[in-house]
Fold this protein.
Amino acid sequence: MKMSDRKKKILQIVVDEYINTAVPVSSKNIAEKHLTDISSATVRNELASLEELGYLTQFHTSGGRVPSPQAYRFYIEELMEKGNLSDSDLDYIQSAFSSKSNDVEHLIKSVSKVISDLTDYTSVAIGPHADAERIRSITLLPCGDGRALLVIVTGERILRDSFIRVPENMTDEELENASRVISKLFEGKALTEAKEVEEEALQEFGQYRQVMAEVIDALKTYTHPREEDVVLTGAEKIFNHPEYEDIGNVKNFLSVISSKDKIAELIGDENDEIQISVKIGSSGDKDVPDDCSLVTATYSAGGKNLGTYGVIGPIRMDYPKVIAVLENVGRALEGIVENKNRDKHNNKDGKQ
Amino acid sequence: MKMSDRKKKILQIVVDEYINTAVPVSSKNIAEKHLTDISSATVRNELASLEELGYLTQFHTSGGRVPSPQAYRFYIEELMEKGNLSDSDLDYIQSAFSSKSNDVEHLIKSVSKVISDLTDYTSVAIGPHADAERIRSITLLPCGDGRALLVIVTGERILRDSFIRVPENMTDEELENASRVISKLFEGKALTEAKEVEEEALQEFGQYRQVMAEVIDALKTYTHPREEDVVLTGAEKIFNHPEYEDIGNVKNFLSVISSKDKIAELIGDENDEIQISVKIGSSGDKDVPDDCSLVTATYSAGGKNLGTYGVIGPIRMDYPKVIAVLENVGRALEGIVENKNRDKHNNKDGKQ
DNA sequence: GTTAGCACTCTCAACACCTAAGTGCTAACG
DNA sequence: CGTTAGCACTTAGGTGTTGAGAGTGCTAAC
């Protein structure tokens, strides 16, 4: 059986209508409100055939039809008409990013909040991959008890820190020296380049090889997204959607979002080439839980990864709106990052 | 009307029974299972009188009785019999704290998890007040763009960090010098003592007063608990309790725990003298939301505050169990902290 | 290929009815 | 005067019935 243009049109109507109303769509509804030139009986024939093709399901005979996950996928691929944001939404994006705090941690949080507020779904976000970032400063601070704090500041001003073990008999002065050596070795390099200097570094370090090894280990762990990097905003938004009037669904959803590890796994393996990714639960995308849909966008500006942002919610999601929000937020974000870079250059030029 | 001993006994039975079964308690139940020497009619008279005193309520005439918040308060004050933990629970506490990681951040998380697992409620935790902690190391690291990273490591190995603004024309070397001066000034002092050296510090700093002022500002903010210090574990545990089969209650609960600010406010203002505090929503404790109960304990060892830990859940909470868990966890925690201190001293003695 | 018409199925709300649980009250008892 | 048995009363919750409404599938006619 082929997908005629009319079938596509009808499928599109069903999905649009169901997204907006959350009520199973009837043939009468379609014929009266959207396709006034054909009768409900004709629509019924087409619906029956779409059902046979796997795009629609019905709970019971007299209950209207509901899109299947397969239908949503097809809808997103081919049928969906792009949404536009209202002026007030656009204003909101502008005003949210106009605050001048350029601390990346805060930026991630505010982007996540904007997305959640505008889409009315729970937003998930994960910061930039640290891989490509260049180390601006790397320091070991003595803390006593055979421990030192490793502080790394990268070009993007993200700082990461963790304790490493040092020999108990190492004095603060020795540690300071070691810190200086490490500084020389790594400053200006990207985190991923740590491996390349590994041999050289271990050589140079003589008796404190162990310390160096720990530092390199720590550097390596930074290239993976960590639990703390996952930001979740607006979990309570799910109550605004009728599928979560059922306690079982709430439970399921909660159990998904309460594991940040799992979320990191879900959104962390994005292929950077794909700008917007839609994953729909059940059968298709292995890891996405049933009855859940995950829409994410990976942003970048000036060749730099800015992180992955998106929403998680019911399969019956307002994809046009969500995608419009993600696109607009992305543009705004790229805008401010590029402006910032330009400012920086101008300032430098002006002073030199 | 007086509270006779028999009334107290009956009230205790009602609360115990309701805590365990979540079913409104009937006079017949009490007479048959607990007070076999008197008849249900007598119990009924007593129940009616307890209701008049405000300790009991009923949803409808034939529905049995349910304790009021006032009854829970009285129960905790006077009636409750202390619970004992099972051997397996005690073992669990021991094994959970035997891991030797003495990183405070991790310790808080694992304590919170233990409490949540053993009580089956959502656990809230907030780390030690920084007030009394002595600064072990304080450093300013240059980050470019008129910013520097302030890194503070305290005796408890808690590290806190934030960016501060520095004059754009300040060189890295100047910053390093400033860092050294600041180090000298503050090392070994408690965070709360920052104010005392304020005048002296501003004096000494000459042209970079501004930097010093920012550092002192930052120090001041650390004495308040911050959003990031609040740890929440086991939010999904609420589904194990029947009051949260109602979507409205889940919604309410979620909205409470989704604001870490609010939680910090709730548990952060503990009077350190009180070891265990019970706050029951509705009328009594202003800030605790209706239908919620908050039980927290503030731990300390060797004069040092170790943070505040507890659970948040329905008013119908298993107070004896929760309090037993909090007490045992507290003892275990104090034990390991004291052992650690002793080890530290022994090591030092051995080496010197 | 399209459509009108109709029988069929299913949900949902309303209603009556019944039962079980628990209470309050009263009158009798020691 | 406290205690108790007995009984009438109240209410939630479950069940069965009914009718209306919605939507479909099928068929025969256009």
Notes: Confidence is low (pLDDT under 50) at residues 348-352 of chain B. Chain B has three domains: 5-79, 87-128+226-351, 131-223.
